[in-house]
Structure formats: structure tokens, C-alpha cells
Design a protein that fits this description.
By secondary structure, the protein is mainly alpha-helical. The protein has 2 domains: about 55 residues; about 60 residues. It contains 4 helices and 4 strands; from the N terminus they run ββββαααα. The strands form 2 sheets. The protein has a two-stranded antiparallel sheet with strand order 1-2. Strands 3-4 form a two-stranded antiparallel ribbon.
Amino acid sequence: MALCANKNCNSKVPDNGDCMTCQGCGGKLCFENKCGKYTKSSWASISGAKKSKWRCPECKEKNESESNQSKRQEERRSRRSIENKQITNKEVMPEILELKAIITYVTTKQTDLQYSVDMVSDQYDKILEKQKELQDKIQGLEEQVIFLVASK
């Protein structure tokens, strides 16, 4: 029997695989003190796919620390890049005015399109109403024909 990989635990881990195995460091953690944050029953309910990616708290903390350090380095690079680009109003103003003109044009076209859609929608509603009227007339005529044929 080996000792639990949790440094604060002195429990022994059985050799029969009745433990949690970290996929980061390969350490085996016991269930007795929830060293891997799971009880034996909760560990049994976890899918094999999740178990194959599971990392002990120490490895998980180390991985998050490395990830955060990488993010901070990227943020520093990004800030330096922005600081190095001293953009002046003279360089940006023509582009802003061009974008404003494009936005105005697109807004106008969107308004025109909405008007057209509303108009077509109104016409469609009128057509449906007329179709209902015609169906009612046809049904009335059919009933009259049936009555006339039956009365002969």
C-alpha cells in the first residue's frame, strides 16, 4: 500500500485501484478524507471520460496558476502594442466619417426595407381576407347547387 498523494493526509491507498488517480501527476488519493474532493460513492458516479481528465487539487491549482500567468503576459503585450500605436485624430477622423456615412446609408436602407415588408404584410393580410370571402361564396354556391339538384 502506498500513501495518499495529498501532503496533508497520512492515509494509505489500497493497491487494488480503489482510489482516485490524478491524470496530471499520477498520484493516488484516498476517499477517507476527501483528498480529491470526492467521496467513494460520488467518484463511482463520475463518467470514465471525466475520470480520464481528472486532476488532483494541487495539479489543478498549478495549472490555473500557469494559465493566469500566461493571461497576464498576454495582457501586458497587448497594452504595450496599444501604447506603441500613437493614433492621432487626423489619422482616425476620415475613417470615422466614412463609417458614419456607411451607418447612415445602412440605416436608411433598413428603414426602406421595413416599410416594404410592412406594405407587403398588409397586402398579404388583404389577400387572405379576400380568399376567405371567396371560399365562403364558393361554399354558399355549392350548397345552392346541391339544393337545386336535390329538388329536381
